[in-house]
Amino acid sequence: MIVTLRLSTMSPPTSPILSVQPTRGLVDEKLKVVVESLPPGSPVTLHSLHHSEDEDYWEAFGHYVSDFRGMVSVSEDLSFGGTYTGKEDMGLLWSMRPVPGSRKGLRLRKMNVCSPMLHNISVYSGHVSEGFREQTPLTSVLVERWYMAPGVKRIDIMEKGVRGTLFIPPGPGPFPGLLDMWGGGGGLIEYRSALLASHGYVSLAMDYFNSQELESADLEFKYFETAFNIIKEHPQVIPDRVGMFGLSLGSLVTMHVAAESTIVKPRCCICVSGSHFYPRDRTIKEVIMEPRSNSHRLRIDENNHHVWRDMWIHLLDDPSKKVDVGKINCPILLVNGKDDQNVPADECAEDIALLMNAAGNGHLLSRVLYPDTGHLIEPPYSPHFRASNFKAAGVATKTVMLLWGGQTKPHSDAQEDAWRKILSFLQHNLYSSTPPRAKL
Amino acid sequence: MDRKRCTLKLLVQPSRGLVDEMFIILVQKAPSGFQLTVHALHKCEDGHSWEAFGHYTADTIGTVNVSEDPSLGGTYSGVEQMGLLWSLRPVPGSKPGLRLRKMNVQIPMEVTISVYQGHQTEGFMDQVPLASVVVERWYMAPGVSRIPITEDRLSATLFLPPGPGPFPGLLDLWGGGGQLVEYRASLLASHGIASLALDYLTAKIIMETGKMVDLQYFEKAYKILEQHPQVHGSSIGMLGLSLGTSITLKMAVYSEVMKLRCAVCISGCHMQPVDGSVEEILKYFNQNADRTRISEENELIWRDVLLPVPSDLAFKVDMGRLKCPLLVVVGEDDQNWPASESAMDMKEMMEQAGNSHLLTVLSYPNAGHLIEPPYTPHARASLFRSMATREKMMALWGGETAAHSLAQEDAWRKLLVFLRENLYSGTNPGTPSLSHL
């Protein structure tokens, strides 16, 4: 006799339950992703999908196996394949890459910080590596990732020739302030300032390429001093607690102003992926043009990516071509990647240390150098790209594929670690009531 | 303390959460032993301001953790992690009889949490706090779709969870105040249940025809859910509060069309004319309107109108015929409906009929009538326009704030577990995770 077991067609579905906490969080907060009510020991794929402002699709995924209770916990279990492997609680974000068939050289950056980044987190049956769009997931949730905490105010600044956006934390204040500067790509990039304001710093994101004011080196210098003072004089800012934060070219500006300004006294400086090569009396625009005149030092690798790192190394031997870092008299944190292919960050950091030690202010310097990490050290969990399209701002050049460097997993670890160290450095120097003195 | 040199830090996590999620409020770097007031301020959609506050003393390292430290006074006392929300009350000088309800669920409630120096009880608006943050409380999770429903002349809104589905479904009914109230349905959709909020007292069809809806109105709503491609048709439940329970019980027991998987009745009764629809139920209530009492504060106590529980089976739902699990939630201090008495009678009827294994009664001492999703402020009385009498009056709902808020928190958690257990398959190996609630 054959006995057949029939499943009741009237029973409700045993659909797995996906929970992601928080569903609305800041971009630097961790996610807890848990799947329950799966069949025990079943292979599943956790997938994240993001549709960018540029209309591209980015995805990440990990291959998991549920336990005897039918549960998968991304922070505790291991991924056995996908865009990341191992125990990676945030792998679904940092390992994102453009979906197959996308345009080349993409970079993921949020331009409108008043709205969140949306990520669709889904569970697929089995270990899937492609064709996610053609399949229906078992379940999915939508997660919002914000650069702006509730209550942060965003104010357009067009004052004394300075163009930028000011972000002010909620509350009466007064707060410490930060002048936030990006690199040679130019434009008004707000997201890091919005995030810093969400951590309690009045931050001014600056556009320092498109202004008419930057015709001469003198005027340009005054531009940065004016911007700094706009923050310092704001009624909600503690005037002697204003620092500077730069990435790439922004680092250079930071070091130069900190060293040379008689008016502006930053309380502390953070320089990410910067060099200290500053041909004296030249403007930023001219510094950007430098690659053109040094084109024999430009390398183009086997993938047709432009590698700029060697273009200025010869300047290490010429003091007149470097920022006089011996004159910096505030704590300064350098954050660099050892695999930075855009700027010789490692060598520059070494040189800066030598110069500052010789000048007697070496105790102000802290450096962190991350292995296998590239040039674009961004806030944590943002995807890594070894190269991307780049067009220098305000310069009539064509778009090239610039090599930034870094390997995805170590670079992502560096971003997470660096951000924590940066926030701790800022907290110590801008919030603490003891006078700034110590290193990290 | 010199505000210019103040390094006090205030942190609320999460800064954006669902209304039924807990938050952690941490004050750090205050001077050791510092006395401070943590204050919450909310401006509701009607433009009224609501506030709550607790008095704390920082420990030796200058920290106050609202989830661990006791409030020494204010609008709540003791260790109350969510006291700043559930003890919200209209600021002094507000008009009486206010009730806090979110009508637009697509934008969050914004609450400003601040720290003031010292143990203060008034005049917060005239002072500058030491620190403050803004917290968003959402009735809708990201990805939940809000779909207005007007077909079949219904006035309803469907909330679908994110994802492919199919999802279990739920009909969500409020009480005698009418209107299309969406916030509980949107919150349930945020928990994975496709929920339909239904207006059955002030719906367009009623405004246009001048007549109350018949039972087919509710069956049409059920069919909308049942036939929806993203709803699992054999997994539909019904939830009612107050007058909504009357409809829920009638449909659960008598409807040939509705095959409910389970039902939830909050602060309601089974006493009603067995025949007839909304009109007949309201007439029945009006019959004994002279039994209403007035409290010392001039508030209307309505509960006696439905008492005593009749023995005539023409006037109470035949609970012995119920075939699905039923969760009954009652506040023992309900001054509006005799929910406790009704629950006892329902239990007796079901024990006699042999189906009492379907019944779960959650009875909360000192809780009132309006048992809402957790952390929403308690209103012991408020201005109410009854659709039965068409008059606006101050209705006494009952309940003592702290006990009522605890009841809301507990009832909601148990309600979600009940719905999950009954609307999803019963053979799940693991328990759904509700640990963040």
Write a structural description.
The complex is a heterodimer of chains A (440) and B (437). With 440 residues, chain A is of the alpha/beta class. Chain A folds into two domains: 17-146, Sandwich (Immunoglobulin-like); 153-431, 3-Layer(aba) Sandwich (Rossmann fold). Chain A contains seven helices and 21 strands. In chain A, the strands form five sheets. Chain A has an eight-stranded mixed β-sheet with strand order 10-11-13-12-14-15-18-19, sandwiched between helices. In chain A, strands 2-9-8-4-5-7 form a six-stranded mixed β-sheet. Chain A is globular, with a radius of gyration of 24 Å. Chain A starts with 16 loop residues before the first strand and ends in a 9-residue tail after the last helix. By secondary structure, chain B is α/β, with parallel strands linked by helices. Chain B has eight helices and 21 strands. The radius of gyration of chain B is 23 Å and the shape is globular. The relative contact order of chain B is 0.11. At the A-B interface, β1, β2, β8 and β9 of A face β2, β8, β9 and β14 of B.
